Amino acid sequence: MSRARSASKRFTEPRRATWGRAGLPLLLCAGALALSALATARLYSQWRDMPANQLRRIDYAVLNDARGRYSGRALEGLVLVANSEQVTEAIREPNHLPASLAAVRGRLGMLPSTELGRVQLMALTMVQLERAGLPPIAWWPAVRTQLDTVRREAFEWCWAALRDAERGSTVAAGLNPFDTAEFVSFNGAVHGPFLQTLRSGLGRLKSALRDNGQDEDAARCRRLWRQVLREAITGDAPVDVQLLAADLLIGELTADPESTPQERDVIDKADAWRTAYREALRAAALGPAGLRLSDRPDPSARWRAWLPWGLAVWLLAASAPLAVGGLAVAIASFARPAAAPLGLGAVTVGAVGGAVSVLLLVACYGSAERWVQDDFARIGSQGDARPRTLFIAGGVGLAAAALAGAAGAALVRGGARLAGSGGALLATWLVVSASAAVLSLAVAPHKHAGSAAAAQPWEPPADSPAHPDYHGLRAALRDWSP
Fold first, then answer.
1. Lowest-pLDDT range, 83-87, 311-315, 337-341, 448-452?
2. pLDDT at 23
3. ∠ at Cα 174 (169, 180), nearest 5°?
4. How many CB atoms within 10 Å of residue 418?
5. Is residue 482 a contact partner of residue 226, using CB atoms and an 8 Å limit?
């Protein structure tokens, strides 16, 4: 009788313990793996859609071929961009100045609808004369000759046509349609050094002419400079050029002791638009484009919408040591001949430990936000682009793994300690990976929103305070005669 009862015990006890020894660990492992895979897939999708990585997939041979077929105002806009690049190159590399002058001079015939190319040539000419050691008053004969060729008050930037052509070309070359606005907006920044160079050269020449008693010639320089700035704001210049022109115009008119009431009204309207535009940028959800990096009034704004994704990466990084430890201990426990089942107490302790770990990661992430922004800023950079803050998440994960394993082992006695440690580790891993998956799903609608939201403040609707027409700036400038 006792032998029959012993045999029955040998067959029935394993079946009762099967769930605790194999079913529960497998369920925890499968759940944690599935959730980790889901979060990883979401993060990888976001990584591929970041504009800095989109740019790597552009076929520039296709893009340049499309640009070679531009015509009309789109071609003129592209020529003006190329001319401004020549100005920047001449400033950066003095030996390149003769080639830049020749290139800009050779393209004048490609700009039938705008005189801006002649002004770009004038800026390069003043750079050449300055480097030759001539005083500003000696620049006037050469500048006057070029100024006499500017026969129209037509300083159009031809940007709208170029922007539309570029959007179509970059999509054909492989860029995501949602990111074309950021790519095109990046090109507008090349005009900044040209405007700054023109301001410096004409300003020094104007002062020299006035000191030499040539007030009429000084007025011609002043009039040209103000006309260029006015056309930049009232015309179709890139909006970053419009903002720069507004800054320069405010400085120009404010420094003029003979400014008229009409000009002071222009100052007030330009300042109101500039302030409203910057406030719109601060409120916008901007992504780390890796493109427009130098013209943000609030540099941290472009990362804020992406911070939840950084937290999801932290959670996944913290789950890595939990996964390794949990799987290793669970496999070791299951391989033992007299393996003990996982206790629900150990699993509960592990789940609580996972929740505490998530809260600790969130607190650390909030404290390290500036470091996280630095990690984002290195994405797409030519230097060391490896994230540095993941070591913090990994450290939290290691500490959580050690504490969960020790707590799980402490709940049981004897040979069941290994099983208790494994159960706590697996439960902690499950909670952390579930948090990463839920977070990645919660911010999934942000897909492509970085590009769409970033483009919106640059071309705000006319009824928005961020639009220059809202404050009457363009109307005031059109009524103003420099």
1. 448-452
2. 63
3. 60
4. 21
5. yes
Length of the chain: 482
What is d(CA 134, CA 9) in angstroms, rounded to the nearest whole number? 106
Q: Residue ranges of the alpha helices (H) in 235-383?
A: 239-254, 261-283, 301-304, 307-335, 344-367, 369-377
CB 287 within 8 A of CB 455: no
Q: How far apart are CA 242 and CA 311, in angstroms?
A: 37
What's the whole-model pTM score? 0.65
The CB density around residue 27, as the number of other CB atoms within 10 Å, is 13
Band of residue 213 on the pLDDT scale cut at 50, 70, 90: very high
Residue 388: phi and psi, rounded to 5, are -110, -25
- The amino acid at 474: R
The shares of helix, strand and coil residues in the chain, as percent rounded to the nearest 5, are 80, 0, 20
Is 107:117 a contact under the CB 8 Å cutoff?
yes
- How would you label 460-471 residue by residue, b for 16+ Cβ within 10 Å and e otherwise? beeeeebbbebb
User: What value does the mean pLDDT take over residues 452-460?
Assistant: 45
Domain boundaries, the chain: 22-50+304-446, 55-287+458-479
